[in-house]
Design goal:
Elements (H helix, E strand, L loop, with lengths): L5 H17 L4 E5 L4 H12 L13 H4 L2 H4 L5 E8 L7 H5 L6 E2 L8 H20 L4 E4 L7 H7 L4 E2 L5 E2 L19 E8 L20 H5 L5 E3 L2 E2 L5 H7 L9 H4 L2 E3 L3 H5 L25 H5 L3 H7 L10 H14 L4 H8 L7 H14 L2
Length: about 375
């Protein structure tokens, strides 16, 4: 670690925020690697079984609250935000059209892990050019870190009742087209460094949720079981992405046409009403997936699915789970002979979960 004076460290912290914005991040903050109270919250969440089948969440929770355990020698954490809300077909219109597929808006373009990681590495290199060798590690939703708590501590927002980080528009940098940049439509990333940077001097962002419960009311499956507490086992994002095997029948009708993730809690949040679309071309929707017909996607064979989803967050799935999710949406779609005929093409699919969901969808389509 390079030895720097207090004045130099203070100047460096200011520069880091400027460099982060030059790299396209909407904001950056610095915090100390201390997350004591958040560990207890995590333990209680796991003890309640709200992590579902995500067993990795229960492995060594202490590490998630200890940046030093993730990278020895960490003295400061640099948190960054990158807005992703794309210029896409109106989300509510897609959700209300049972013939279309709804994909969470973060997943329509390039895989954000790649974008975030590349830019954070550039930020690390820029710091090295200024001070010399830098011990560091980059995180972009890629390791067991409580990134929302870290970002909160860095003054980037507060954790809302839907458990996502929110920032007021007046506290945020405006997007390239001049639109306010508040709300919750952004990715988070972290850079752990072995330099004792001056922590962000901003006051902690006050919880702006107040008495509002719009996100809780909006959740189609009742996954927000209490303010600031989500039961992943009921969450459509978890069910369509993380969960393997059959999706419980009680959630299939409420899923509607949501085939990859769910944005309902964020769409309902008043703080997102003034959010502007990102200027990041990497997050521009690909292949018309912001308003694609269910039957079009259903007819992609595995080779076409692999080709079209290359480099996208959709690769969190395999083709079988893609079909499983689509089968539910087709079961919820307006009844038609075309849907029934298309579903029957996969009644003998080798994956048991696909067969189960196709049979369910055919029953739903029956007159």
């Amino acid at each position: 670690m390079t030895s720097l004076s207090a004045d130099a460290l203070r100047t460096l912290a200011v520069s880091i925020r400027e460099w982060a914005r030059e790299l396209g991040f909407s904001d950056a903050g610095i915090s100390r690697p201390e997350l004591g109270d958040d560990l207890e919250h995590l333990r209680n969440w796991i003890a309640s079984g709200h992590h579902g089948s995500m067993t990795y969440m229960a492995r060594d929770p202490e590490m998630r609250a200890s940046p030093q355990a993730l990278r020895a020698g960490t003295l400061s954490v640099i948190s960054v935000r990158l807005p992703y809300w794309p210029k896409a077909h109106d989300a509510d219109e897609v959700l209300q059209n049972g013939e279309l597929a709804y994909l969470s808006r973060y997943a329509l373009g390039r895989d954000y892990h790649r974008v975030m990681r590349a830019r954070l590495l550039k930020l690390a290199r820029r710091i090295e050019r200024e001070i010399g060798p830098l011990g560091h590690r980059v995180f972009a939703d890629s390791a067991p870190i409580l990134e929302k708590a870290v970002a909160r501590n860095a003054g980037l927002g507060w954790i809302g009742k839907h458990t996502l980080l929110i920032q007021r528009a007046q506290d945020s940098v405006r997007s390239a087209d001049g639109a306010p940049g508040g709300g919750s439509w952004f990715f988070l990333g972290e850079l752990f460094v072995d330099v004792p940077l001056e922590a962000d001097v901003r006051e902690p962002v006050a919880d702006g949720c107040g008495r509002c419960s719009a996100c809780i009311r909006a959740c189609p499956t009742g996954a927000i079981v209490a303010p600031y507490k989500v039961d992943a086992r009921r969450c459509i994002s978890y069910l369509t992405i993380e969960h393997h095997g059959p999706i419980p029948e009680e959630f299939r009708v409420p899923m509607g046409n949501r085939i990859f993730g769910c944005d309902d809690c964020q769409l309902a949040c008043p703080w997102n009403r003034e959010s502007g679309a990102t200027a990041e071309s990497d997050f521009t929707p690909r292949h018309g997936l912001d308003a694609a017909r269910l039957l079009e996607l259903w007819n992609w064979d595995e080779a076409e699915w692999l080709q079209r989803t290359e480099g996208m967050p959709l690769r969190r799935l395999d083709h079988a789970r893609w079909l499983r999710n689509l089968a539910i949406a087709l079961g919820n779609a307006p009844r038609s002979a075309e849907v029934v005929e298309s579903l029957r093409k996969h009644v003998d699919h080798p994956d048991a979960a696909v067969r189960d969901h196709v049979e369910w969808a055919l029953r739903r389509q029956a007159p």
